[in-house]
Specification:
Blueprint (H helix, E strand, L loop, with lengths): L3 E4 L1 H18 L1 H20 L5 E2 L8 E5 L2 E8 L2 E9 L4 H9 L1
Parallel strand pairs: 1-5
Antiparallel strand pairs: 2-3, 3-4, 4-5
Helix pairs in contact: 1-2
Length: 102
Amino acid sequence: MTLQFRLTEPAIHDIEEIADYIAKQSGLEQSERFLSRLEAKFAKITQFPNLGRRRDEILSGLRSLTIDNYLILYMVIEQDVEIFRVISGYRDVSNLFAEESE
């Protein structure tokens, strides 16, 4: 059975910011291409949810998978894959969830 993915509000915001940044830097076509590849990556995660690297040091059950210079942070919750964030791979991921809980 293939799972479904759900985007959290922070993930939606992340994706919008990334798409805007790519559009400004490289053009709308590149931004749309990135979004298509991102959606394909989400579909792959729903088929193979254990594909990503375990990130239990950050949050139990959390996984990460890369796309370009970005990290998709997700977790399988019941029958869904919840996409928590899509962030720059240069960010300090361990502090990311600490910042959100403050």
